[in-house]
Every structure is written in C-alpha cells, then in structure tokens.
Write a structure and sequence with these properties.
Layout: E1 14-19, E2 25-30, E3 33-38, E4 44-49, H1 53-69
Antiparallel strand pairs: 1-2, 2-3, 3-4
C-alpha cells in the first residue's frame, strides 16, 4: 500500500485526524475548522468553521450513511 498525502501545508496545519469506520473518509481540524476528505481521491467534502458539536455529530452521521450506501 502506498502512502497518500491528504492535506496540503499551504492550507494550514492539520491536527486530530480520524478515519471513518470503513476508512473511506478522514476528518481533521485545520484552522479551527472541521474538514472531511475522501481517502480515494483526496477531495474535500466538508469544511465547517467553528466548533459546534451538533455539526460534528451531523458530519459523522452523514459519513457513516455514505459508507453504508457504497
């Protein structure tokens, strides 16, 4: 398996990475925003500024649903 770069330094420092249950997505915090990226192609699918727990829970639920549909 090859290593794939999912973040870019010019966009800011990424912290606290978490894989979705089926490892199709990874989320992380960048510039005080929650970001989700599709592992397959590195495309950013969500970017939410601020930290609101309902938004984080909503993102987690939607990623789980997308994985179950695939």
């Amino acid at each position: 398996d090859a290593v794939k770069q999912l973040t870019r330094a010019e966009e800011g420092f990424a912290t606290d990475p978490k894989f979705s249950p089926k490892a199709r997505y990874v989320s992380f915090v960048r510039d005080r925003a929650l970001v989700a990226v599709r592992v397959e192609d590195g495309s950013e699918i969500e970017h939410w500024g601020g930290f609101q727990m309902d938004r984080i829970a909503d993102l987690a639920g939607r990623l789980r649903m997308q994985e179950d549909e695939a």
